[in-house]
Design brief:
Elements lengths: L12 E5 L2 E5 L15 H18 L6 H8 L3 H8 L6 H9 L8 H5 L6 H8 L2
Antiparallel strand pairs: 1-2
Helix pairs in contact: 2-3
Protein name: Bacteriophage-related protein
């Protein structure tokens, strides 16, 4: 069976935002809720950093340097990863729930982050 001349109209517009295409629907049209976008790299890094912090605080390792030697990693890398434990709780929660901004990457966080939570939100929550 052949269907000639069949057309389907979908009221929407495509916009580019941050290198990604977004579908913009007209006002009043119902859309489904956005699905969380879990970032396994970010989640694993957060889990690892908090685990390392607990190991240091419990006395299992005396310092980040000792932990780094045990893990066969550089002191610098372990220190940068441990800084993830200083993220604002709402940012950490958003990452774990897949609600963080799409452009937020581990490399961005490891480059250096402010200690003040308000500054973190301003810097990372764009």
């Amino acid at each position: 069976m052949e269907l000639d001349g069949l057309s389907i109209r979908i009221p929407m517009m495509l916009r580019r935002r941050g290198g990604r295409k977004l579908v913009i629907v007209p006002d009043g049209l119902k859309t489904s809720a956005p699905q969380p976008a879990f970032d396994p790299v970010l989640i694993n890094a957060l889990v690892r950093a908090h685990h390392w912090r607990r190991e240091i605080e419990s006395g299992e390792f005396r310092s980040a340097s000792e932990l780094a030697a045990h893990e066969n990693l550089t002191d610098s890398f372990v220190a940068r990863m441990l800084c993830l434990t200083l993220l604002a709780p709402d940012i950490t929660q958003a990452i774990l729930e897949g609600r963080h901004p799409k452009g937020l990457k581990l490399a961005t966080l490891l480059r250096g982050m402010p200690l003040a939570w308000e500054e973190q939100r301003r810097l990372f929550w764009t």
